[in-house]
Amino acid sequence: MTRLLLALMTIGSLTAPLAAAAAESGLVVFHTQCSRCHGEDGRGKAVFNTPSFLTSKLGAAEMEQVISQGRSKMPAFATKLTPAEIKGVAAYVKAGLPAK
Predict the structure, then answer these.
(1) Do the domain assignments include residue 100?
(2) Taking the CB of the first residue and of the last residue of the chain, which one, N or C, has fewer CB atoms within 10 A?
(3) Span 20-27, mean pLDDT?
């Protein structure tokens, strides 16, 4: 039981840095690919009628799917971004758009 608990604690402590690294790489992608329509702060732009990420109810997997396949007026980015970049930008957005 102690070993299982220790293993789970170790996995948990490794997951946070990996999520932080994905969010960090997503910062660059967000500011080069997404901020034109979604704004530097992720609040969206009225001129494009883009949604605010601050109020988004999408989970990370759903967000990755929208980024990859597009939705409504948003184009698909599957051919423009790697799967790792898509995962990174979704992690960055879900982390609350940390400061540049």
Answers:
(1) no
(2) N
(3) 68
